[in-house]
Write a structure and sequence with these properties.
Keywords: FAD, Flavoprotein, Membrane, Monooxygenase, NADP, Oxidoreductase, Transmembrane, Transmembrane helix. Its cofactor is FAD. This is Kynurenine 3-monooxygenase. It comes from Saccharothrix saharensis. By secondary structure, this protein is α/β, with parallel strands linked by helices. It has three domains: about 230 residues, FAD/NAD(P)-binding domain, CATH 3.50.50.60; about 100 residues; about 80 residues, no CATH class. The chain has 15 helices and 19 strands. The strands form four sheets. A seven-stranded mixed β-sheet has the order 6-5-14-15-16-13-17. Helix 1 links the parallel strand 1 and strand 2. Helix 11 packs antiparallel against helix 12. The longest helix has about 40 residues. It starts with a strand and ends with a helix. About 40% of the residues are buried. The protein binds flavin-adenine dinucleotide. Flavin-adenine dinucleotide binds next to helix 1, strand 2, strand 3, helix 10 and helix 11.
Amino acid sequence: MTREALVVGAGLAGSLTAVYLARRGFHVRVLERRGDPRAPGAREEGRSINLGLSQRGIVALREIGLLERLAPLTVPMRGRVVHLPDGTLRFQPYGVAEDQILHSVLRHDLNVALVDEADRLGVGFSWGRRVTAVDRAEPAVTTDDGTAHTADLVVGADGAFSAVRTHLGRGRRMDLHQEFLEWGYKELLIGVGDDGRPRTELRALHVWPGDEGLIVAHPNVDGSLTATVFLPFDGPHGFAGLTGAERVRSFFDRRFPDTLTLIPDLVEQFLAHPPASLVTVRTAPWHVTADEGRGIVLVGDAAHAVYPFFGQGMNAAFEDCSVLDRCLAAHPDDLPAALARFETTRRPHTDVLADLSKRNFVELRDKVRSPLFTARRKVDLALHRLFPNTWVPLYTLISHTTVPYGEALTRARRQDRVLGGVTAAVAGAALAGLARRSRNKGRWS
Ligand code: FAD
């Protein structure tokens, strides 16, 4: 008998889950509060944001056979270009191997490709339908038009402020921890130059680090880049203080001078939109089971929203879909067992990702400028080049492999202890050399 699945949310996780479930033989319907992203004008209306696709996301897209078709929609990024306040640019490669690159893609384009693929596999979509209630016992969800939809499996892929998650926890024991960052973000477009060419290096992620603000820019296939400006919400140099054109101009002039050349209408763009917030969500449990082997499960941001500073939110969401599919394959006739296995396999690792994403905020904000950090990173990469299988930097493990996040952290901590020793030894030798030189200088002068 064909099993029925309902997916709430046709975002990145929802549309990919729908594809996996359809391939596994489920009859799938997706309920999405927004309109069809393929409708004329939807691209312009939607969020312009582009995302860095890395290995975990790549593996999932390859599994469903979509990777090749996406290639023309992506721009490869081989490393970071760090913009320093004095105008200096510093290139930091992501890795040592040819395939250790990230791919920048517009959220909208990726979403449309996934929805198209789901459609091709016979998935039904109900656009403009917001889920307002969930009945755990059936399970069933009710949409804002008053219709109740039942299914064997309900997947909550409705993002960081998930309605499914809220209803999952009603009247029972459920952990929910939400943490908002004191910084928010706005997007700015670095358009192409008057000659139609990119205004800066296209094949890289651009970073303007700083303790008062941070900018990250991803390239687009049309030669433009989308920059995300992260600033504190409060304070004179936060979003609250940067109100008039003059204040905005002088702030960027002082902190990120080259952005005013790259974005001639920066001030207008900056003042045109309110800032958005960033949230980390941890919750447990991720699933409930109902009678007759039915159940509800959360995936993607609904289960584990993270700050975007490791560029892993979408990649982790895609990996969720792939892991869930494997769990369903391992328990073809036992949905509760599959959902339980999914949660126990996956949650410890996404908890680690939440911590790593917070930590990378500090790294991008403060450390990428630091010569010690750069030196350490160089040693880290040099050791990786020498021992490619045994020494793998944390960034590489997270972005360019599918080693589970928790294992990646354990391995990196072990390496860090060694690296600390190596760096201390190198610094010690350098200091000893300096001291020797200054003693000799004293003797000769
Ligand atoms: P969403 O994309 O939020 O989709 C949820 C969907 O559910 C939406 O379509 C929504 O309309 C729908 N929905 C919500 N409520 C309901 C309801 N009640 N009924 C019906 N439908 C509903 N990740 C990366 O991997 N790489 C990056 O470079 C990266 N950069 C980022 C930069 C920024 C500034 C931000 C904020 C995030 C970034 N992320 C990145 C994270 C990434 O955007 C998210 O992790 C990803 O979008 C999660 O996908 P999702 O499908 O779980 O949630």
